[in-house]
Amino acid sequence: xxxxxxxxxxxxxxxxxxxxxxxxxxxxxxxxxxxxxxxxxxxxxxxxxxxxxxxxxxxxxxxxxxxxxxxxxxxxxxxxxxxxxxxxxxxxxxxxxxxxxxxxxxxxxxxxxxxxxxxxxxxxxxxxxxxxxxxxxxxxxxxxxxxxxxxxxxxxxxxxxxxxxxxxxxxxxxxxxxxxxxxxxxxxxxxxxxxxxxxxxxxxxxxxxxxxxxxxxxxxxxxxxxxxxxxxxxxxxxxxxxxxxxxxxxxxxxxxxxxxxxxxxxxxxxxxxxxxxxxxxxxxxxxxxxxxxxxxxxxxxxxxxxxxxxxxxxxxxxxxxxxxxxxxxxxxxxxxxxxxxxxxxxxxxxxxxxxxxxxxxxxxxxxxxxxxxxxxxxxxxxxxxxxxxxxxxxxxxxxxxxxxxxxxxxxxxxxxxxx
Amino acid sequence: xxxxxxxxxxxxxxxxxxxxxxxxxxxxxxxxxxxxxxxxxxxxxxxxxxxxxxxxxxxxxxxxxxxxxxxxxxxxxxxxxxxxxxxxxxxxxxxxxxxxxxxxxxxxxxxxxxxxxxxxxxxxxxxxxxxxxxxxxxxxxxxxxxxxxxxxxxxxxxxxx
Lengths: 419, 161
Fold this sequence. Notes:
The complex is a heterodimer.
Chain A: H1 5-12, E1 24-28, E2 31-35, H2 39-48, E3 60-63, H3 73-89, E4 93-95, H4 103-109, E5 118-121, E6 135-138, H5 141-150, E7 152-156, E8 160-166, H6 175-186, E9 195-199, H7 201-204, H8 208-216, E10 225-228, H9 232-238, E11 259-264, E12 271-273, E13 281-283, E14 294-297, H10 299-302, H11 305-315, E15 325-328, H12 333-341, H13 344-350, E16 354-355, E17 376-379, E18 395-398, H14 401-410
Chain B: E1 2-9, H1 16-19, H2 30-34, H3 45-48, E2 54-57, H4 69-77, E3 81-84, H5 89-98, E4 102-104, H6 108-111, E5 117-121, E6 126-129, E7 135-137, H7 143-151, H8 154-160
Helix pairs in contact in B: 7-8
């Protein structure tokens, strides 16, 4: 009986020669990630356990991206705690200030996470790196503390759901629409404790930016990880960035799946997740007349240069509707600079957008774009829970950069086709 | 262990933003987090609940973010344990890792009303309801997870090894 790519990567990080779904294992960790919200608890746990030295200073990544630039004194204190820890332990991959980007955009961009890796992060969207053919999963702060101390962590080997996507995605339909559609089909716990493995001709043709958006939202279906078999697209993305060896894994032909779900991408239209669950998904044609107060384009889901290019293509020579606050958040300094070189920032500013520094702030209702009572935002982010972006009586609608840009112009949830 | 307390009922998909909203994540102090426990699901919750009470959730309790602040807020509020039909996986591991007792029961949430007093006997694997002869089974906990609880959480488990 064969193994899935998820099982193979996990097995390669243990001393075991056989592995199967449901098994509890201890596995070696290649990269352990924390941010300014989750790392302070991990550091406290690490010290309480008598930790003197991290297992490998090259394998810990600490990224101060959530409540930065520091939003208040308490946030500044949390960043200080992490900074002092990073200095004390000589952490190689420590990012803050002008070097910081949204962690899940930053780590792939810098080649810190690579195909075949086992990555854990005290941030639920760590599953993003599955786009590269890595096993990557979100954990808590105590898990991060344990990994920083020992270089290992316990895992339950997940069973896998295989998604087979075929057909050519129509214009304005992206990886974001595909993953929203999938979450809409299976629900927010449709892949609970499982791996989501994305395959098929549509996936093979999918650019890396779209794969990253899809893997990013696997957690929104309850999954442990999302994963793509690495291929030529992966090689092209990874090769110029990697500074250590990496390995491509693939599922065996006779690997066992708990479910196989086929999706015809030919028939997809842009998708919108209505409040207050990422699974509350409708096609844009069924969105109705939903007026918006804010449009947020950014985040670990959709803040990459490809996303900004799509948004700029729509916003060129147009303006955000008078009552709409348009916020664009380039996810990393490199993306910011590239957007500047390509003239995208001019387009955004001419459209009356605010350009934010790279930060997770607005997406999780931290700062830099909070909603008041009764306000609505369309957002290219990943969660629309009650109170996610501000007041408990505000609303978040999840969509692609194309839909968010078109909606900003029209002042209501809209398809780019309407412009 | 025995847990005895009044239940506070919540629905399906209670997310970590409802358990502890991100606007309070500029601290990791348990006492401060406890003041906002379950705030966006029920703003009055911390005023109403008493130490020892039990949270009773539906499917996928604790979905969303990986913030360990969520089980920390619940534990520090005085809630003795959480029973739900199912738990989101990061919340599940966080609870075991940091020592918040959680139990799965598919039936309990649909069978009893809020305010009922229940007794959970974790060694016998049963939940009984005060003033009735109703009894429910707890889904068995894997031996490794039992060991984590017995050792007092993941870091103490590692220290022991």
